[in-house]
Write a structure and sequence with these properties.
The complex is a heterodimer of chains A (about 240) and B (about 230). Chain A has helices spanning about 50-55, 95-105, 110-120, 135-150, 165-180, 195-200, 220-225, 230-235; strands at about 10-20, 20-30, 40, 65-70, 80, 155-160, 185-190, 205-210, 210-215. Chain A is an alpha/beta fold. The chains are: A alpha/beta (about 240), B mainly alpha (about 230).
Chain lengths: ~240, ~230
Amino acid sequence: MRTPALDLPLMFVDVRIVAREVTILDQISLKLEAGPPTVLIGPNGAGKTTLLRAAMGLIPASSGQITWGGREFSAPTRRAIMFQRPAMLRRSTAGNIRYALAAAKVPRAQREARMRELMAEVGLVGLEHRPARRLSGGEQQRLALARAFARDPAVLFLDEPTVSLDPAATKAIEDIVRTITARGVKVVMSTHDLGQAKRIAGDVVLLHRGRLIENSPAAEFFAAPRTHEARKFIAGELLM
Amino acid sequence: MEGDVSALHLMLTADPVLLAIVRLSLEVTLSAVLLSALIGVPVGAFIALNRFAGREAIIVILNALMGLPPVVVGLAIYLLLSRSGPLGAWGLLFTPQAMVVAQTVLVTPIIAALSRQTIEDLWVEYHDELAAMNVGPLRRIATLIWDARFSLVTALLAGFGRAAAEVGAILIVGGNIDGFTRTMTTAIALETSKGELPLAIGLGMVLISIVILINALAWGARRAGERYAG
């Protein structure tokens, strides 16, 4: 187990995010603590990606307060994010990881060994010299995970990490999520896939139209949803 | 026909006059492209990454400057470097250095404008990742320039093409002095006006060959690099 993350608990207090006069998140109050993965679910446009970006510190709140470990301004040294469509740097696979290690200020002497560890951790051994942009979709997602791990994160945000991946590639990502969770990394991920949420989530946050509808332990959420919207979403009905 | 044969003879016998002109031309052009790259690429990157008042106007002006008339640039540099000009004390007028300055003024906007576009496109792609990695402003610029290096070759080639083909500006500030500031383009213009076609044709063939060779080398390097880095 790693030491408790300085960035946790991550608190949203009545957070509102407005972009170009459109309210994307509205009155979000949420506490993310160390423990099993928190999974954000909700239809398209619910605000999942914006919430993850705000939690990472990439988007400021228009009103309300976001705090990391009780601090309002916190350099993202121990948190990392993997975007839904991660950009591959125009370098080799190993070069992408080396870059992330350098950005994370890992001492030069340790980078090569750490790069090899990360390649092994995400199952990309043998692809060190392949241009990152020529990897398959699943391999690119795993490379993006390795880049995120280069920061040795205590909190890892994953934005739809398995969207458009085949079952084998999805399983590979889910296995990695389980491994790092067991190691003490707090994973906060969004997904459209209710099955994936059931497999992975410790607790579930349902968002709809920028508002937090329900936040409860996964077993409770799926067995006895408290809200009408949650019941409809679980039943596969459209949330309008 | 006679001119073609004589031109070929000059090239095959490595005529010293022809070689000296070719050497000076390459020195001036490559120096100007190098200087322009050192100025233009960072300027393009800075404009690509930053939002500030007047940015759009600067982009429009930069794009417009790509079409700077060489004779006007030549005249402006001439006025600056002439004995009575503000930089007259430097004694650069009618020297190869003055020609480099003139070509740098012509080529820098081309490299800066094309670099700005190339780097801005890559910045759109990289923005979130670099922000998430907490990469600082200088490292962002360095990363974008490095990762766009193969695309930036096209900007350098455009600048090289402009400089290699240029005659008006260097004629004015260089003076086309035999054995000192005579380049391929100015020599072609002079020899043609004198009716001395063999040297003009020979120089024209050499100039075209050099442009093709440099473009081929750059293209090959770009393809090889892309295969390695993606």
